[in-house]
Amino acid sequence: MPKNTLKHIGAASKYLVIAAALLVLIGWLLNTPAGFFGKADAIGYAVCHRIGERSFHIGSYQLPLCARCSGMYLGAVTGLVFQSIIGWKRSKIPHWSILALLVVFVAAFGIDGANSYLYLLKQVSPGILPKIPNIYVPNNTLRLLTGSGMGLGMAVMLFPAFNQTVWADGEEKAAIPGWKAFGLLLGIQVLFDLLVLTESPIVLYPLAIISAAGVWLLLTIVYSMVWVMIMGQDNKFTKLRQLWLPLLAGLTIAMIQTAAIDMLRFWLTGTWGGFPLGN
Asked: How far is Cα 253 from Cα 257, in angstroms, rounded to an integer?
């Protein structure tokens, strides 16, 4: 595509993205449950089953995401922040041995999720799949831990991918430079998980905010990368403030996706609550 054409498209896109962001945000705010935590619930509603028995609670208030999703987005946010502190323009993935452990985390997430879903099916429909036994009785502790492992894996792969896409002066260094750094990250995440398992409101209220915000954060990063590639701006940026338009475009698309799923799910179920499927 000619450079002049790209410039015109780029100039027009600024106003279109800003207008779209405002319209989508206003529409979403007006058509989702009232209150700060009502909005957090609406974000979780778009990506999580929100079954009550599989979620943490503060009194009668159920967190926006189930235990597994809460762990996943907490792990993702922790991993992204940790890598940003180490070196926010590092663009290489970790050593293969660290990736191998992350594969184990992903496998644990899949196994625990499958076992939990099988348990749910048998709870809802007694007698179904009698020849396929559950490996163990699922619980929220395992959901949180396996979710956190999955979240760390997502962050470790997404962070360098984003840096490879946007920066003109990215550092050719691993975002997680070695086992010492990865061990520290893992220790921090385990500490966070142990704090969550106390189920103290002091911990769960921040978890509600972080996990819900993590949904939009991850989607914004992914869609920002897509926007940059579509606009032919790969490796054109040197400062964070230059990324305001791709990031706003990514956030706008994330909000559109969230709103669309919210509308569809509410139309199908007629409730902002979780799926009424029991334990």
From this structure: 6
Three-state SS at 94: coil
Catalogue the E-assigned strands of 45-158: 57-58, 61-62, 90-92
Determine the Cα–Cα distance for residues 58 and 203; give it in Å rounded to an integer.
10
Strands 57-58 vs 61-62: parallel, antiparallel or unpaired? antiparallel
Closest CA to 212 of 40, 48, 35: 40
CA-based end-to-end distance of the chain: 55
pLDDT tens-digit series, residues 70-79: 999 999 999 9
Return d(Cα 160, Cα 171) in angstroms, integer: 10
Contact indicator for 107, 29 with CB cutoff of 8 Å:
no
pLDDT digits (tens, 9 = 90+) for 118-155: 888 877 777 777 777 878 889 999 999 999 999 999 99
Q: At what angle do helices 201-230 and 67-87 cross, to 10 degrees?
A: 60
Within 8 A by CB and 6+ apart from 5, the residues are none
What does the chain come to in residues? 279
DSSP 150-181: HHHHHHHHHHHHHHHHHBSS-EEEESS-SHHH
- Is 26 within 8 Å of 255 (Cβ atoms)? no
